[in-house]
Write a structure and sequence with these properties.
By secondary structure, the protein is α/β, with parallel strands linked by helices. It has a single domain, classed as P-loop containing nucleotide triphosphate hydrolases (Rossmann fold), CATH 3.40.50.300. The protein has nine helices and five strands. It has a five-stranded parallel beta sheet, sandwiched between helices. Helix 1 packs across helix 8, helix 4 packs antiparallel against helix 5 and helix 8 packs antiparallel against helix 9. The structure holds thymidine-5'-diphosphate.
Length: about 260
């Protein structure tokens, strides 16, 4: 079978780069996901975005049922999320990573561990169940950190009169948060405060990604020829993006400073 070889200068790295956003409902993950979509649009290697659960119709069906008080048995719910994950990973995530793309997920294994862990299934068991499958572990997992009270306030403001789903209830989110806080030891997990403006959070995520890409790249080129021009390295894309932002910020801040006189 012919497999087209990706030019390593074009690829983020031979096996791509995998970033996942995690956090409580209401923490602003989806906003960060779409900000990354814009910032990564011109990445030469290309980017792949996904959001879990992908089988949304099935999930939303039960959320509605759940709001009326019935929810699938915990094990059935766990199987649903793992099977949904396995399907999209095999069909689209692995091919994207193999083509050297930068993949960004909105929820992944950590959500499974926290949300189904909150139903009483041991978190270590959920983690092991995921790791037994062909599911790549992310290079970087950014947890958008927010207190439960704040998350609930944001959700209520967003929902207006419609009731919060069972997943979003205080008791559930409190358990989810407890498990989430216990997972910082996992490889590549970094916490970022979600109590700031979307652009500040985006900048911090960008800097974490730049750092992680640079260190993966360093290992990658240890045994391979370097690209002729260092600016062709994927890390250059992140550095330039960061510098551009810092420049814009400087200009904006100077603008504010001068205009206040
Ligand atoms: P959604 O309404 O998309 O929330 P958000 O925009 O915050 O991602 O619903 C996703 C819900 O699915 C969320 O409450 C967490 C839940 N979930 C699990 O319970 N287990 C999982 O493995 C995943 C991926 C999500």
């Amino acid at each position: 079978m012919f497999t087209p070889k990706v030019d390593p200068r074009e690829s983020v790295l031979e096996n791509g780069f995998f970033l996942v956003l995690e956090g409580l409902d209401g923490c602003g993950k989806s906003t960060q996901h779409s900000l990354l979509k814009t910032s990564l649009a011109s990445l030469p290697a290309g980017a792949h975005f996904f959001r879990e659960p992908t089988a949304r119709a099935a999930f939303e069906g039960w959320s509605r049922e759940g709001a009326r008080g019935t929810r699938p048995a915990p094990r059935a719910e766990l199987d649903f999320f793992v099977e949904d994950r396995e399907r999209h990973v095999r069909a689209t995530l692995l091919p994207a990573l193999r083509a050297g793309k930068f993949a960004v997920g909105d929820r992944y294994i950590v959500s499974n561990v926290c949300y189904q862990g909150a139903l009483g299934i041991p978190p270590a068991e959920i983690l092991a169940m995921n790791l037994r499958r062909e599911l790549p572990w992310p290079d970087l997992t950014v947890v958008l950190d927010l207190e439960v009270g704040e998350a609930l306030q944001r959700l209520e403001a967003r929902r207006g009169a419609s009731p919060l789903s069972l997943y979003e209830k205080k008791e559930n989110l409190t358990k989810v948060k407890e498990i989430l806080d216990s997972l910082s030891f996992l490889p590549g997990v970094r916490r970022v405060s979600a109590k700031r403006s979307p652009s500040e959070i985006h900048r911090e995520i960008w800097d974490l990604a730049a750092e992680a890409v640079a260190s993966k790249e360093k290992a990658f080129y240890r045994h391979r020829p370097q690209p002729a021009r260092p600016e062709e390295r994927p890390s250059a894309f992140f550095r330039e993006g960061g510098e551009k932002r810092a420049r814009e910020r400087g200009e904006r801040e100077r603008g504010i400073f001068f205009s206040s006189f």
